[in-house]
Amino acid sequence: MPANRATAALAALLVTASLAPFAHAQLRLPRISPAATVTQTIGVTDLTVAYSRPGVKGRVIWGGLVPYGQPWRTGANEATRFTVTDPIRFGGQELAAGTYALLTIPGPDEWTVVLNSEKDLWGAFGYKPEKDLLRVTVRPSAAELQEWMAFSFEDLTPNSANLVLRWEKLRIAVPIAVDVNALALANARAAIAAMKSDDWRTPYQAASFCFNNDVALEEGQQWLEKSIATQPTYANVALQARWQAKQGRKADALRTADRALELAKASKEKVDTSALEKLITEWKGQ
């Protein structure tokens, strides 16, 4: 290759290399409809909605900007995403853990809420009804003016919530239910199966859950016995006393409580025994 052509080729290569970082740079600018994420934990299950928030801006929304009877991204920009970490009931229907596109089909008196398996949609473009995993029918209700569209989790209980959409002067809600006890017990069984031989805390925590929630009591007692056999402590022996009292075995409960107090006194760490001492007084008075 002649010298001048070699020099030109080298120069072109250097220019290309110098521009390479800029060729892949992404310019980030504000969106008209800002992104938002809302997350709620129910029991051990995380539920998340990721979406963009359009504003009313004086426009006619329902039947105008958002037509009736047509699939809507339920927000702006990319399709809204709904993510759940465990199986749940969504609008009364079974839903597996995963991430889904959440779309709606608004109507004057009735809405359809859709979860679709194709989560990487831009808006509702490319939406395929055959990819729907479930559809839930809800009725809209009047609400106070909401300028920026918002999702929220409301009416929270230990094992349920409503997924609520508010925009303009409208509100819709989809009930969500989680089998918290079943999931917690499954986690406990897995943790106990994998725990180390000197771990007394894991079976103690699992037994405490059973006792406090009045669930799987027989299995919980086995876990408590496993914890005490591994290492008797004030915590697990005091729980055993409470368990015996719950079964109506007050004499056994008092003897076990005395043992728990002895373990507390022998402990190198300061132990608050006031709650157990109060129970002992109650048990003796009965």
Order of helices and strands: HEEEEEEEEEEHHHHHH
C-alpha termini separation: 105 Å
For this structure, the quaternary state is single chain
Structural class category:
alpha+beta
Radius of gyration: 29 Å
Written description of the protein model:
By secondary structure, this protein is an alpha+beta fold. The chain folds into two domains: 35-177, no CATH class; 180-285, Serine Threonine Protein Phosphatase 5, Tetratricopeptide repeat. The chain contains seven helices and ten strands. The chain has helices at residues 3-23, 180-194, 201-213, 217-230, 234-246, 250-266, 274-285; strands at residues 35-42, 45-52, 80-84, 88-90, 93-95, 98-105, 111-116, 132-138, 141-157, 160-177. The strands form two sheets. Strands 1-2-3-6-7-8 form a six-stranded antiparallel β-sheet, with no helix packed on it. Strands 5-4-10-9 form a four-stranded antiparallel β-sheet, with no helix packed on it. Strand 1 and strand 2 (45-52) form a beta hairpin. Helix 3 runs antiparallel to helix 4, helix 5 (234-246) runs antiparallel to helix 6 (250-266) and helix 6 (250-266) packs antiparallel against helix 7. The longest helix has 21 residues, at 3-23. The chain starts with a helix and ends with a helix. The relative contact order is 0.09. The model is unreliable at 6-19 (pLDDT under 50).
